[in-house]
Write a structure and sequence with these properties.
The protein is α+β, with helices and mostly antiparallel strands. It has helices at about 20-30, 85-95, 105-110, 140-150, 165-170; strands at about 5, 35-40, 65-70, 75, 100-105, 110-115, 130, 175-180, 185, 195-200, 205-210, 215-220, 230, 235. This is SH3b domain-containing protein.
């Protein structure tokens, strides 16, 4: 289980994050192997309700958080050119789970802190990434790619009430197809720390031999040999062209 800390009482935005956001973050953390989420800036007073607020309305009612990710005691850091695999997996999973606003950049909040949340109001459902100066054109390319991969998942998967691991655990072995718009990385083991030398394109059909947590062990070639692991939330069962008991 992922540990949440913060926000600090001294922060201007020191109110708790919403339960909806916490579910999104917990789901993404479990999928990406994140041990601890440090919230450096949480919810804030709604305009007119109190003085503890600053900047964007995204943080109103705890619908956004500025946070850091910790894996095995190390706080993950990034550059404007690249980010660790676990951070990319977290962002992709958060976007798939329903986060619509994600920001990061060394010149934005430093090399460790990212913004994850929803829109500027409860009626704002626009998906957006940004970097320095809060500008979308300054969003690092790795941030764009990870978030867009998550947003490319079917709407049925972008349900912040359901953890990615719950989705995977409900599946059974069999034939599946890749449904990630930008493709799905085939990894050497069940987690983002394992390397990937191949990306399976959208629509690739494969055989899942077993599910384990948020990951699926797969045979891509159909020869009975295991080829690696993929993130299970971006797979969908292949539906047969013939109804059960029908004539082939």
């Amino acid at each position: 289980m992922t540990i949440f800390t913060g926000p600090p009482s001294s922060a201007i935005r020191n109110k708790p994050i919403s339960e909806q956001l916490k579910r999104v973050l917990a789901s993404a953390a479990q999928s990406a192997g994140i041990d601890t989420i440090i919230i450096t800036s949480g919810g804030q007073d709604v305009l007119g309700d109190g003085p503890r607020r600053t900047g964007s309305t995204r943080h109103d009612r705890g619908r956004a958080a500025d946070l850091q990710l910790v894996v095995r005691g190390t706080t993950l850091s990034f550059t404007n050119q690249s980010a660790p695999a676990a951070m990319l997996a977290f962002i992709e999973a958060a976007a798939a789970a329903g986060a619509t606003g994600i920001g990061a950049g060394v010149d934005y909040m430093g090399p460790r802190t990212i913004h994850v949340g929803f829109g500027k109001s409860i009626d704002d459902h626009e998906t957006l990434t940004w970097g320095a100066n809060g500008s979308s054109r300054n969003a690092p390319q790795w941030l764009r790619d990870a978030a867009e991969a998550g947003w490319g998942a079917p709407a049925a998967l972008a349900d912040s009430d359901v953890a990615a691991s719950d989705l995977a655990g409900a599946e059974t072995p069999g034939r599946y197809a890749v449904i990630a718009r930008t493709g799905l990385k085939l990894r050497g083991g069940p987690g983002p720390d394992f390397g990937s030398e191949k990306t399976l394109p959208l629509g690739t059909e494969l055989t899942v031999t077993q599910f384990g947590g948020a990951w699926a062990c797969v045979d891509v070639e159909g020869d009975g040999v295991l080829d690696g692991y993929v993130f299970a939330s971006f797979l969908a069962p292949v539906v047969s062209d013939h109804a059960e008991g029908g004539v082939a």
